[in-house]
Design goal:
Order of helices and strands: HHHHHHHH
Oligomer: single chain
Helix content: over 70%
Number of strands: 0
Distance between the termini: 29 Å
Amino acid sequence: MNQNPFVILPGITPEELSFLQQATAGLSEVQLNSFKFIYQGKRRSPQDILLFTLIGFVGVAGVQRFMIGQIGMGIIYILTAGFCMIGTIVDLINHKNLANEYNAQMAMESVQMVQMGTF
C-alpha cells in the first residue's frame, strides 16, 4: 500500500499536500525521510496561526507575524495594536493563506537543504 507520507501532518490542507508532492517529486527515499524530519520542525499549522491571531484580540497583537518570521511586521502590529485591530481581523480571515505561504517557503528551504546534503 502506497500511503502519502505527508497526510500525518496536523491540519494539512489539500493545497499544501499538493505542493509538497510536487516539491519532493525528485527526492530519493532517504532524502524524502530527511525532508520530512526537517519540514516537520519548521512547519506551522493553520490552527496555530489562528490561535496566535486570536491572542492579538486579548493580549499582544502581531504574535502570529513573529511565528511566521515576519519580525518587522510583528513589531508594527505591536506598536499600532494590530493596525487598530483591522490587521488582526484580516489575519484572522487569512490565517490559512499565511500558514500556506510560510509552509511553502519552509518546504522549498527544506528541499534545498536535503538536495545540498547539508542535513
